[in-house]
Design brief:
This protein is α/β, with parallel strands linked by helices and 125 residues long. The chain has one domain (6-124): 3-Layer(aba) Sandwich (Rossmann fold), CATH 3.40.50. It is 44% helix and 19% strand. Strand 4 (83-87), helix 5 (95-101) and strand 5 (105-108) form a beta-alpha-beta unit. InterPro entries: CheY-like_superfamily, Sig_transdc_resp-reg_receiver.
């Protein structure tokens, strides 16, 4: 049996974390959740993940700043993790803005859970 894929959810809304966890755990993904970009970087020092779902607007360190820090890591495995932006302000950014920051994809809020699942599967297949 293959090991479950590990997804790190970086999101400051407990409601979105819980809904996302429920959707993804139903698909047998292992989910870890944190509330800001600083916690993402701390988690990455001790754990490996297959995908990061990154809220763009978080306290302490936002998703864009955190993504740039991940992409600058010396560990090529960690710096190459697929990162999907989750944002309610997608109109403030273009896909090009996300790509320049190092993000692989984005999902807009309010979350469409079928689209969330399809996007996660796309990056983990």
């Amino acid at each position: 049996m293959t090991e479950n894929k590990k997804v790190l959810v970086a999101e400051d809304s407990s409601v979105i974390i819980n809904l996302t966890k429920n959707v993804l755990m139903f698909e047998k993904y292992d989910i870890t959740a944190v509330k800001n970009g600083k916690q993402v970087l701390e988690k990455l020092t001790t754990e490996d993940f297959d995908l990061i779902l990154m809220d763009i607007n978080m306290p302490i360190m936002d998703g864009i700043e955190c993504t740039k820090a991940i992409r600058a890591m010396e560990d090529k495995t960690k710096s190459g993790i697929p990162i999907v932006a989750i944002t309610g302000n997608y109109k403030n950014y273009t896909l090009d803005d996300f790509k320049k920051a190092g993000l692989d994809d984005f999902i807009q809020k309010p979350l469409d859970y079928d689209h969330l699942l399809a996007t996660v599967r796309k990056h983990l297949s």
